[in-house]
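Subject: two folds for Thursday's group meeting

Dear M.,

Sorry for the delay on this. The cluster queue was jammed most of the week, so I only got both jobs back this morning. I'm pasting them in the order they finished. Each block is the input sequence followed by the predicted structure tokens. Could you check whether the formatting survives your parser before we put anything on slides? The first protein is the one we discussed after the seminar.
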Amino acid sequence: MRQPPSAISSSSVPTQPHRAGGRRRWFDLHSWIGLKLCLFMGFICLTGTLAVFAQEIDWLLHAEMRVTPGEQRASWGQMVDAVQRAHPDWSLQGLAAPHASRFAAKAQVRTNDGRLRFVWVDPYTGKVTGDTHWFNAHRFLRNTHRHLMLPVKYGVPLVAALSIPLLLSLVSSLFIYKRWWRGFFSWPRGDRPRRLWGDIHRLLGVWSLWFVALIAVTGGWYLVESLGGKATPPPKISLPGDGKGEKAAPADPVAIDRAVAELAKRWPELSVAGVQPTAAGQGILIDGQAQAWLVRDRANVAGFDLRDGRLLELQDGREMSVHQRIAEMADPLHFGSFGGWQVRLLWLLFGAALTALSFTGVYLYGLRVADTLRSARKRGRHEST
């Protein structure tokens, strides 16, 4: 039996005001988040974007980090020995591989008065090029982005909580922007400022959807970790001479090279990224990247007794639990450090777009308020006449 037209219009077809009302609520939420948090969000996005290339910034600032590529490479033992000879009274905590071909290898040391410094070693000649303060541009940007220089237990959850409004902004934008998938190639119209900046905002938003989702999800994971949801780390490898009461002594460079060579035989897929000799020089940890994808260097590690060259333990990142793998994936995905400079450049560009979204959003809000005030004044003049 056919329904009368009145029944069809009242029950089957949603009214236009109802649709508009729902879209308006999403718009109000999107605007409120942008207005209240734009400066905070933009600052965090800006520092995170710069942090992607923080080591390159330090490379420009510090001549000690700059080297000329050569045909031969110094061994790990030679570089450790160079640091120990240059600063025999300082305690070597670890030596990291060069960031790129024109970068020096980085040794983290602790001075006699307890200060942290970096000692730089030319990976081609095996000679120390100098030392710099531990608190550099890289550390400034990372600490500012991660916890605003506040105590970690307060700063990290405060910054990570931005993942919630960021995710809400993403979801609300999909409801506000009808048929958003058509906007990938919609060139901004420049007939008036509000339309121009609105089109730029939408264009940046559409292209950045995947990146916004990625940053929101990884930021949400940092929030979970800061509230007690951290993954249990793998058991620490026990090394000889690792006790606090052990007398400090330099590590034998020949023994280090022997351990690295032995590890290459047992685990040829591992690309060594760093070595950490114990304070007493009797043991060493060697870490790097192997078959496990999207993990930090510390996920793949081997411990050696430098006294006899014996492999004590080997930990493969592929053997981690799901919870541990999620924890390991967060940093590489958040900063794009899982790839070369091409990946990090992509992260830099989309980080800049996310920063621009924060500031253009509030600028659009200001333009909208200004248009409303102008319209109200015009109506007032017409009514008075």
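Second protein, same layout:
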Amino acid sequence: MNAATDGGAMRYAGRISQWNDEKGFGFVTPHDGGTRAFVHIKAFQVSGRRPAEGDLISYAAVPDARGRLNATEVRFAGQRILTPAPAPERDMRPRRPPRRIPRVAIGTLFLAAVVGLMVVGTLPAVIGLGYLLLSAASYLAYSIDKEVAGRPRWRRTPESTLHTLDLLGGWPGGLIAQQVVKHKTSKQSFQQAFWLTVVLNLVAVAILWRAGIAATWTRWLLG
């Protein structure tokens, strides 16, 4: 296990393998294996950002009364040791919780609308079936990636793969999975790319629909 001393205290290097930003806690897994430790937002040194899954951190590990490891004196990789400011100078105002996006509702309503339009014959079947199949694939990909996130020896699903599935039409399923399995919702860069894929997909589908290309594909594939 990567360890170093800092003022007499043994410190470790690891990566946040799970993080619940709404509740402000998660787990950190040491780089070279070993027991993962519980980490709380209050254990982090003052910083300009909140933790996210995948962040590299250094920390001291202290067992609690039940023998479970807790990460303390947590710093992001490369962050300098800061001297705590006097109590009167600290901003003691509670942080506002992040705005929740009703991901399950949005994804479910969109798929329901797709099915409805397909049933009445307004939407070409190739588009409707494409959304349903790709959404199932995207949901499965998110779920598997979440499952192996805390297992260093397991290979993660590349973010590019998730984005490709979403871009092709799986974004409703990906959106639902993000809320259900609590995955990729707090990583800002991923969310920005995700919503871009949603916009690009909707624009592309609208063009295929209006130009009659989707209807042609439907007749060719389904007869």
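Two things I noticed about the second structure. The two ends are 61 Å apart (CA to CA). The beta strands are 3-6, 9-20, 25-30, 37-40, 56-63, 69-76.

Cheers,
T.
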